Amino acid sequence: MNIAVFASGRGSNFEAIVKAVRSGKVKANLALMLCDNPSASVILKAKRLKVKTVLIDPRLHLTKKSLEDRIIRHLKDNKIDLILLAGFMRILSPRFVLTYKNKIINIHPSLLPAFKGADAIKDAFDYGVKVTGVTVHFVDEKMDHGPIILQREIKIEETESLSSLEGKIHKLEHKVYPEVLRLFINKQLKIKGRKTLVINR
Ligand code: GRF
């Protein structure tokens, strides 16, 4: 199975996936890392880890269609079977999602459907919730919306700071994303409407 990771920023989840693949915990070929932000530090990480990198510069594309066509060409050329979004700050069009139907997974740092969007950890912290967490889900045409595969919770203590919460969330993400990847590769995920069933546990 050929995997592509899409990332726009720091790339800590990307790194966790690389480690899981290289240690043999996940049996897949990490074929490429695709980034849409020329100044993202994930590009340096990929270089250090010797993972093939595709940089898509949005400034070179007048339309979303042209940008996505370019991405799709790279995916086809590399025979990609599964896309993992890991901090990819771009909403994929319905056409793109349909092209890779049930083959795009995202990780989000809250218990969806609470706190969608780019600042989920801070939004949950500022709201004062006592429990937050991590969600891994299939991607559909709406943001942070597709069928949920896995959720893990984290308690927010009264003494918690935002940065300690961020640390806990990211640590948990790095554990659960490879777990979900293994379930997908082992064909243990079955989508039924809004629900994802995990079979043969
Ligand atoms: C993660 O918190 C992920 O859940 C969210 O974006 C962040 C990416 O972090 N979608 P990193 O770039 O993997 O370090």
In words, what does this structure look like?
Helix 1 packs across helix 6. The chain has 6 helices and 9 strands; from the N terminus they run E-H-E-H-E-H-E-H-E-H-E-E-H-E-E. The radius of gyration is 16 Å and the shape is globular. The mean pLDDT is 97. The protein has 201 residues and is an alpha/beta fold. Bound molecules: 5-O-phosphono-beta-D-ribofuranosylamine (GRF). 5-O-phosphono-beta-D-ribofuranosylamine binds next to helix 1 and strand 5.
Taking the sheet with the most strands, its summary is: 7 strands, mixed
* Class computed from helices, strands and strand pairing: alpha/beta
Query: Rounded to an integer, what's the Rg over CA atoms?
Result: 16 Å
Order of helices and strands: EHEHEHEHEHEEHEE
- Number of DSSP E strands: 9
Strand content: 15-25%
Q: What's the shape?
A: globular
Average of per-residue pLDDT values: 97
Bound molecules: 5-O-phosphono-beta-D-ribofuranosylamine
Amino- and carboxy-terminal Cα gap: 21 Å
User: What level of helicity do the residues show?
Assistant: 25-40%
Main sheet strand line-up: 3-2-1-4-5-6-7
User: Please, how many helices?
Assistant: 6
Low-confidence stretches: none
